[in-house]
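Per your request, structure below.
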């Protein structure tokens, strides 16, 4: 069975393909010849994820899934949230991290979580799968691995940041892994 994954990130596709198994052949946006800039204008991860699948269903009528993720910091009222990729006004993650650290300053409340929501359109039905991991924001960057806000996030129960973990270690516990394994569990029944 073919299923479109609304991403152009080959790394993400490969990772999710491995979890989903070979019963489903995942196709990226470029695999189906879609070069459109799919709108992401929602105010929640769920809305943004659904915008991706709605777009593909409307335009191509294909079964598909798409995800949206980000970081929610309690002391910043849940920001950067859906604005995680351009919180400081640019896509430069150095600047985005700096912006978060400045906003938080010495605030002792450092609790935060990464979230992923996956929207799936399959067999004429809409489904959502969510994953979250709780943790805290530290005061300065630690670690070189991973991406995004990984250098300033320590998951609960650990004493190192996501950026200090191997990709295997992070992928075993991450928000995205949790959501994807729920998707895989659902698809297993087909
Ligand atoms: P696509 O929509 O093209 O897949 P994206 O960069 O928008 O790529 P996401 O929606 O998954 O990817 O994530 C949005 C932002 O949230 C991302 O740019 C990071 O800044 C942050 N983020 C998401 N997951 C993260 C993770 O595992 N570690 C660190 N930062 C993450």
């Amino acid at each position: 069975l073919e299923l479109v994954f609304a991403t152009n990130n080959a790394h993400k596709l490969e990772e999710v393909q491995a979890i989903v198994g070979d019963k489903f052949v995942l196709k990226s946006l470029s695999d189906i010849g879609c070069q459109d800039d799919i709108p992401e204008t929602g105010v929640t991860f769920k809305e943004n994820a659904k915008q991706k699948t709605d777009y593909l269903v409307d335009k191509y009528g294909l079964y598909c899934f798409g995800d949206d993720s980000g970081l929610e910091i309690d002391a910043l009222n849940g920001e950067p949230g859906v604005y995680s990729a351009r919180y400081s006004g640019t896509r430069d993650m150095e600047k985005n991290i700096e912006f978060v650290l400045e906003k938080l300053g010495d605030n002792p409340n450092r609790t935060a979580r990464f979230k992923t929501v996956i929207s799936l359109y399959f067999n004429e039905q809409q489904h959502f799968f969510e994953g979250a991991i709780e943790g805290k924001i530290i005061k300065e960057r630690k670690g070189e691995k991973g991406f995004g806000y990984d250098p300033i996030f320590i998951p609960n129960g650990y004493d190192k940041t996501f950026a200090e973990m191997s990709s295997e270690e992070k992928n075993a516990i991450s928000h995205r892994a949790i959501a994807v394994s729920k998707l895989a569990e659902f698809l297993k029944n087909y």
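The chain has one domain: 2-188.

Regards,
D.
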